Q: What sequence folds into this?
């Protein structure tokens, strides 16, 4: 992308109000340069994009290890209560970098547009990305745009890649959970997934369920500043908390026991889940994290999380233990136990 | 992605020979973990993917500046003479990093799969990516997979992002062309675009036109070892040589004069272009570069390029000059002059 200080000689400005994406916008030629200048660079503009080369030249990071994460976003609908595919694609990738202990530094964005997509909607999405990137302090430094024929895409897909830096010894991984550790979540479960499902299924609640989409690196910085000995962070997105905890038990070679009554779930999310036959444990979050920390630091970490707006409803939800089967189990409200298995089947397609 | 040393308890192996992508493969659950383990990690596996976290933890690069580039790939058809979307998505992003003067280090890959896509074709594509990444010495360190419903995608789209490192003072940019500089290309023009078009239009040549898709960082290392004072490198992909040179004249604030008779074009590509009413100057390349260097070093650079297999047909094709209009012009075979304008309209949709 280029901010294009010297214009490529366009006869007219893009008609963003009434225009549509056409195949020429993916050609590599004049129409694409115009789309980049008048829409992408206009909103996303920063010193790196302004370099105008095929990639971005970025500052050296010295002794810091690098972290790289990528996510393709295909959420449907593109706009939903609490957000849209634009801010979601910024938050999701920032979070993947941040939960590894890194400070997110830069993002790239690859757009796959469908012919006929409204430029007005594209502009809203790009503005939302720009606002999210600015609020997070993580600029989109390079990008790409492709166009596919009508019926070969679905409006817009956005793939973001994030790069961050982590000071030596500060790395986090899903491999570091230890028997005895406490398991915490930063807030209510299933808000993002049920916000999407409520729109799709036209569920008529008095107040809509709102996605929790948010960048978590600020919350994580607060948590680390507390001095608690954090072993694992992870954002429970697709597949929900159940899937994320099963991944961690597998990576770390441990088991887990959750307390059902300790799991924070919004009443409206609970109601929608019951109505649709879904379990909030398997529903996607986009602004929540799981933290696993040394047992003796659990209360200190909880206090730190609750001191941050994105962790106000944080809770201690269970413990890590030895288990050669790497099961996630749960003590239910009735005092029984059940296995919280991997998600089987699709449950919620195109949730992010 | 996780190599998954501990299996998630699948009942059966993936049926790669007869199976298809279904929505569950994008769910975040058991089916997705199985697809990642038995297909992606099997072929792409390396120490970074094996970390199994949401991103990859990568070594520090000290004083080296970083370069980040991204490309979404939507080429149609997915398989073509000389390559497929898999190797293309590796080569294209490596080249974007390499033309900035950087050593490409790592790639990420985001897959958007259409429900019903054959797993056998997906396996061929992933194998092709793996082979290309291995040959280039640039591992795919992290990735993501999403699935969209039948009719909302087109088989597979792949977005790759590359990160590289460049020693201080070795950066290259399209902003550094200077009046007097020589313009070189590394080989014949338009091979990739016409390989795609010949398949699409079922042009029956005796021998098919073969895509030039290739990773150029080895050629670039040879060129830099020559000691020639290289000012700009760029790979002329979508929009072809004409578009790339117009981008550089705009970035550098200069003009250019090309010699038509110096432009290397394969006879079969020329014939196909004439048949379809296309101009090879606007047709995409995926294994060629433009180099702009100090006038006195042009011959030395040409010799270096020709010493490398990917530069055997390299040629000096023109000069940079002062021009307040930033025009790219060409002396034609008949001795006249014409302006080589930006590509207008779409010419070749979904070429990469």
A:
């Amino acid at each position: 992308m280029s901010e294009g200080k010297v214009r490529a000689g366009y006869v007219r400005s893009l008609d963003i109000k009434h225009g549509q994406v056409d195949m020429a916008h993916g050609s590599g030629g004049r129409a694409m340069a115009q789309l980049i200048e008048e829409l992408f660079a206009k909103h996303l503009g920063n010193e790196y994009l302004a370099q105008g080369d095929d990639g971005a030249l970025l500052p050296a990071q010295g002794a810091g290890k690098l972290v790289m994460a990528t996510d393709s976003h295909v959420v449907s609908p593109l706009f939903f209560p609490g957000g849209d595919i634009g801010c979601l694609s910024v938050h999701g990738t920032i979070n993947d970098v941040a939960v590894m202990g890194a400070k997110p530094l830069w993002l790239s964005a690859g757009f796959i547009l469908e012919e006929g997509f409204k430029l007005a909607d594209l502009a809203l999405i790009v503005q939302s990305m720009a606002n999210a990137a600015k609020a997070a302090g993580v600029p989109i430094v390079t990008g790409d745009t492709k166009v596919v024929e009508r019926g070969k895409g679905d409006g817009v897909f956005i793939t973001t890649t994030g790069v961050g830096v982590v000071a030596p010894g500060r790395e986090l991984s899903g491999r570091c959970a230890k028997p005895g550790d406490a398991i915490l979540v930063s807030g209510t479960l299933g808000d993002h997934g049920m916000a999407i499902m409520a729109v799709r299924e036209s569920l008529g609640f008095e107040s809509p369920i709102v996605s929790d989409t948010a960048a978590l690196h600020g919350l994580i910085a607060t948590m680390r500043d507390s001095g608690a000995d954090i072993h694992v962070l992870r954002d429970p997105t697709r597949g929900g908390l159940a899937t994320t905890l099963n991944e961690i038990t597998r990576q770390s070679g441990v088991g887990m026991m959750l307390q059902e009554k300790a799991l924070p779930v919004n009443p409206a999310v609970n109601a929608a889940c019951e109505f649709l036959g879904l379990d909030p444990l398997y529903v996607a979050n986009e602004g929540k994290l799981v933290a696993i920390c040394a047992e003796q630091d659990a209360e200190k970490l909880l206090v730190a999380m609750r001191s941050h707006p994105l962790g106000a409803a944080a809770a201690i939800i269970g413990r890590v233990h030895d288990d050669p089967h790497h099961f996630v189990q749960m003590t239910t409200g009735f005092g029984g136990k059940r296995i919280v298995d991997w998600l089987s089947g699709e449950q919620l397609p195109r949730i992010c």
